[in-house]
Design brief:
The protein is of the alpha/beta class. It has one domain: Alpha-Beta Barrel (TIM Barrel). It has 10 helices and 11 strands. Helix 3 packs parallel to helix 5 and helix 6 packs across helix 8. It starts with 11 loop residues before the first strand and ends with a helix. Bound molecules: iron/sulfur cluster (SF4).
Length: about 325
Amino acid sequence: MIENTTLTDSAYDTIDVLNTKYKIGKSTRLHIKMTDACNGKCPFCVARLGKLRKENIIDHLEQKIKIAITKLNVKNVVLLGGEPTISKNLFPILHELKKYKQQLSEITIITNGVKLRDEDFVHKLANSCITAVNISIHHWNKRINSNLMKIDSLSKKELIKIKNMLHQQGKQLWLSVVLMKNYIDNTEKALKYIKHYATIVDQIRFFPISSTKEHETIPDVALFTKSHLMESSVLQSIIKDVIAEGTKIQLDPAKFNPQAYSSAMVYHQHVIFKSTEIHKDIDDEKNNLIYSIKLLPTGKLTNTYHDRGLDFFQIFNNVKQRRGYDEKRQK
Ligand code: SF4
């Protein structure tokens, strides 16, 4: 199955924001960034320095979720951070999302998994409207992964327990892996990783590490991402070899050529390669193109992870603020 993340002309609606036309995808994703803080310290992630700031994320939550789903075409929700499980707002937000369960195809949470050692927490999560829990594990070797993420990462035994609890409620367990030099960086390791977790999880998502721009991050994160980038030819050969092994795969056509590959299912789970380039955080300003909505810890419902983005809550609720925004934008 090919997952098409490219926005074609027939795949968007047009919305008018104070005389400016924006193209908005017919099926957009809402990223709810629960917090800037994390209990882990991955060297490729700016959240390693994130502090638990005062969060206004649940201010006007009901209206914001409603705007996202009814006006901004959100069909898919991802809860992330920092580490979303350390936010006290997690279950209030899930409670609100539950009202729109029928309209949403996926509600997932991306976590480093530490909090999932708490059985009551997993039970609560499994009984919420979550459709899948997505745990980040970047190496099958627990020691290597723990050293990388600076956490005590979950063992296979612990994952099985979590999977069983989720499956009992019809929910899935996914894993996310960042492909980077010195970790999962060739076919042999990719297949070893897949085989290690094949019988445990429902889906494995491989994300090639992307180079973080210096001005968007802190120097050591920029340095790490740059020095651990994977070459495109190596990624292509990993994909080709993984498919040759018979694993069902989804490819991002913007980065990889889907015509080159066929699929079959051997390990009973998906392996999805994602290009991080296509999932850029900001909208395409030149074309006023929006394919992803963010709800930030500050409470802003917007189209970017940065302050300069549109404020959809104000746009749909308050004409004065809209004018204010527009004037600011013209300067
Ligand atoms: S666990 Fe996730 S949020 Fe935390 S530092 Fe690592 S990548 Fe960043």
